[in-house]
């Protein structure tokens, strides 16, 4: 009889301990979630950066990857539904010119990135006739950046005209930082120093 009583007490104690353990774990989780949500509200946890770019021939991509590495940022590549054919430059230019003249919204692949967790969005684009490349224009038209710090960089062949200032004027953001442009030649030769200095201005 005494043995049974001891066994029962042991089982009951173990059961109580298990329940207490679960309750403690779930309380800790709730407390952690509440803290996280409070910190989000206070803007303490939204210091993440996302680099969003489009690149047809790899130059903008190279810069985007460098920024990603330097900032420990996340990265997102914009991809058109129908990638541009680069086999004929004249045909490619004619197509883009026509799309721009018609103010076409070039279709892009579905974006599976929720930007709500990011504080800063860095947009990377090649210069296309001194404008933001069309796939990037589509992305911008589909996103709400009004509560973000935003900066732009562009890569170009010869001249990028007013691309940076137009972007800075037209994009609705919480804060727009001064953008930067690199020629393809500069990117090839190395832009480490310039990039580091620019990144400092974003902080
Ligand atoms: C359709 C088209 C238009 C372009 N327009 C310009 C331009 O106006 N000015 C310029 O300097 N380079 C221009 N370029 C060259 C690209 O901006 C440059 O090569 C850029 O670095 C390419 O970036 P990516 O390799 O990331 O695509 C143009 C290229 C294309 C395909």
Automatic annotation (TrEMBL):
Residues of the signal peptide: 1-23
Keyword Protein transport: no
Residue span, Flavodoxin-like domain: 49-203
Name of the protein described by the UniProt record: Flavodoxin
Alphabetical UniProt keywords: Signal
One example GO MF annotation: FMN binding
Lineage of source species: Bacteria, Fusobacteriati, Fusobacteriota, Fusobacteriia, Fusobacteriales
One Pfam family this sequence matches: Flavodoxin_4
């Amino acid at each position: 009889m005494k043995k049974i009583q001891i066994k029962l007490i042991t089982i009951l104690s173990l059961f109580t301990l298990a329940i207490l353990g679960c309750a403690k774990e779930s309380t800790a989780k709730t407390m952690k979630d509440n803290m996280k949500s409070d910190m989000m509200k206070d803007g303490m946890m939204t210091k993440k950066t996302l680099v969003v770019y489009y690149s047809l021939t790899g130059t903008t991509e190279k810069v985007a990857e460098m920024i990603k590495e330097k900032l420990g940022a996340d990265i997102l590549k914009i991809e058109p539904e129908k990638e541009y054919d680069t086999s004929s430059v004249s045909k490619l230019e004619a197509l883009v010119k026509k799309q721009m003249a018609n103010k076409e919204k070039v279709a892009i692949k579905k974006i599976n990135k929720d930007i709500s967790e990011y504080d800063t969005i860095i947009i990377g684009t090649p210069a296309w006739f001194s404008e933001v490349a069309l796939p990037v224009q589509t992305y911008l038209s589909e996103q709400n950046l009004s509560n973000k710090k935003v900066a732009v960089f562009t890569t170009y062949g010869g001249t990028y005209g007013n691309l940076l200032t137009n972007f800075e004027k037209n994009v609705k953001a919480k804060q727009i930082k001064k953008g930067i442009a690199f020629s393809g030649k500069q990117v090839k030769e190395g832009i480490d120093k310039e990039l580091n200095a620019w990144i400092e201005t974003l902080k």
